[in-house]
Amino acid sequence: MIPEQIIQTFGAILKTYSKDRAIFNEGEHAHFYYQIKIGQVKMFNLTEDGKEFVQGFFENGNSFGEPPLFGAFKYPATAMTLIDSEVYLLSKASFFDLLKAHPDIHLIFTQMICKRMIYKAKIAREVSIYPPEHRILTLLHHLKSNAKVTSDFEVPLTRQQISELTGLRVETVIRAIKKLEKTKALAIIDRKVVI
């Protein structure tokens, strides 16, 4: 997201996190901007019965957890590494100095946050109203649209990850994907979902 040379100029530190380590927890105050150099991170909430509801997956070059920096509220979810990861941390004050010095980067953040808000609104509607097949198709079409792919799109998620992103059980996801394949709404090629 932010070029490494620029983020380093503003004093970012590169921190190593081992697999399954929390970077921040739901309810904590935001003090840093986070950007992944190498690794994978998921943001999630735990339901009352201990099930994870994943807000998003992030990987090399992605940033995460920015809205609490802008809105001065606590983190609404926990961020945890999925593999050993290297993450840039930039203090909140330095992050805002960087955005003031680079309005082009600020505009990119505004666009990215708007896209994430649209995704959250879509998923909230899906979870509250629609059946599993509709939820899954909405997620997959959103991913394809964001990837700017106009031909066949191989979904980069496992059935488990689709489950976590839609609030469905894995078994439900598997059954729904089979139904969607029968109706030709998607295809399964070499065990991968293609839309």
TrEMBL record:
- Identify the InterPro entries for this entry: cNMP-bd_dom (IPR000595), cNMP-bd_dom_sf (IPR018490), Env_Response_Regulators (IPR050397), HTH_CRP (IPR012318), RmlC-like_jellyroll (IPR014710), WH_DNA-bd_sf (IPR036390)
Instruction: Pinpoint the Cyclic nucleotide-binding domain residues.
Output: 15-99
| Name recorded for this polypeptide | Crp/Fnr family transcriptional regulator
Q: Which SUPFAM superfamilies match?
A: cAMP-binding domain-like, Winged helix' DNA-binding domain
* Record-linked PROSITE patterns: CNMP_BINDING_3, HTH_CRP_2
Q: Does the keyword Transcription regulation apply?
A: yes
What are the GO cellular component annotations? cytosol
Q: Per UniProt, what is one GO molecular function of this protein?
A: DNA-binding transcription factor activity
Q: Which UniProt keywords apply?
A: DNA-binding, Transcription, Transcription regulation
Asked if the keyword Transcription belongs to this entry, the reply reads: yes
- Domain HTH crp-type positions: 130-195
**What SMART domains does this protein map onto?**
cNMP, HTH_CRP
